[in-house]
Amino acid sequence: MPYWDPLPHVDAVFATLPPRMLRQSPEAVSRGDWEQRNWRNVPGPFYGAMTDSCEVGRMSAPRHVLYGGEEGWEWLYRQPGDLAELRAVLEAMRDDPWSGWARDGDEHWTPALVRGWWRDRPRLREWIARLGLQPCDDPRISSGASSAGSAPRSMLANATGNRASSDPPTVWYEVHRPPTHPVRYKSDKS
Q1: Residue 148: count of CB within 10 angstroms of its CB
Q2: pLDDT tens column, 167-183
Q3: Domain limits for position 153
Q4: Model pLDDT for residues 122-165, shown as the tens digit of each residue
Q5: Given the DSSP bridges, would you call strands 101-102 and 47-48 parallel, antiparallel or unpaired?
Q6: Are 170 and 111 in contact (CB under 8 A)?
Q7: Where are the alpha helices (DSSP H) in the chain?
Q8: How many domains does the chain have?
Q9: Residue 12 lies in a domain
Q10: Residue 189 within a domain
Q11: Is residue 188 a part of any domain in this protein?
């Protein structure tokens, strides 16, 4: 599947979410700061910066959001690849009381930063290994592939071997438009 740009759909998809008193627009939930982003975020338009530590994002987007680490903040381990996934990610962003998520990652990621993220995979693998991959006992998010234990494994699978097809290709950050031909990644041995 080729890379899908979710940004043109944000306003329309956000409008389908149940209303909340405070954060009623995509701008209101997208106040994260690039300089404060969590190093674990995958390249792409969405990222968690200084989010809450209430662990609410996984209830809406268990196949995209993880939390923990030194700060307990949330981050995106997988960018949305279609409208349903975008809706889940936007709902997770909306439910963050600190509005620490952002959707301007494409303005900041460069080919060099993307390559650096991929080179830093050993750090990510070490961090995931330290988690212990314990299954989640929260019934709201513990179904099959959604469990907290399988999410790090999914992130690890994305961070080893070939890049996921939903990840923005490096060419996206060179020209800021989808490639005109299928992108093929060489398998990294690191």
Answers
A1: 21
A2: 555 656 665 555 554 44
A3: 7-175
A4: 888 888 777 654 444 444 444 433 444 556 666 666 655 544 44
A5: antiparallel
A6: yes
A7: 10-14, 26-29, 57-60, 83-94, 105-108, 111-119, 121-131, 150-159, 170-175
A8: 1
A9: yes
A10: no
A11: no
